[in-house]
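Before relying on records like the one below, remember that each one covers exactly one chain. Contacts with other chains, cofactors or solvent are not represented anywhere in the record.
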Amino acid sequence: MCAKTIETKDITYDTLLQGNKDWVKDMIDNDPSFFDKLSEGQSPPVLWIGCSDSRVPANQITNTKPGDVFVHRNIANVVVHTDMNMLSVLDYSVNVLKVKHVIVCGHYGCGGVKAALGNKQVGIIDNWLRNIRDVYRTHEREMATIKDPDQRFDRLVELNAIEGAANITNTSIVQAAWANGQELSVHAWVYSLKTGIIKDMKVTCNCLDDVTPAFKVG
């Protein structure tokens, strides 16, 4: 029997703590040594770079367990070379955890991408959304051919994930790993809130030949 799921409207400070106790009991009932094994360390094969959206939890939508996926999330799963937080996570994942896959996963209906499509000022996040507008500018010719607003929105979500994966590939961290013969693949995915299905954008990179020439180092 799984722990009872709390309805969103019923979530309070106390129900979160009780939910934790229920979850712990459920895990121990299924595997008495679960937390003993979990506390010994981690060796996840995957780094997940996703959106902070509460509806896109990496473990649940991939049916994986604690310890299986190393996770970094931000507004609209943006990947830029000036983000030291993301670069630190990437460096640790690649050089210490030795992950075999880095996945940049966007999702249809992303509020950050939608905001980037408009001209309304939101606040300090406008500076962050500028990165998504740069993706739009890079692909402006293609975007101009998409007349339906919803399809244009979906396509920018896809392009943002694809560009994010490309930016991962272009880092010196990933290039050094490949140069040293490390097994590592970078992927772009997009998750659908309406169906629960992940779409593989088919842009996997796994060697130095996949690096944009202008960004090759060493």
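The beta strands are 46-51, 69-74, 101-107, 185-191, 198-200.
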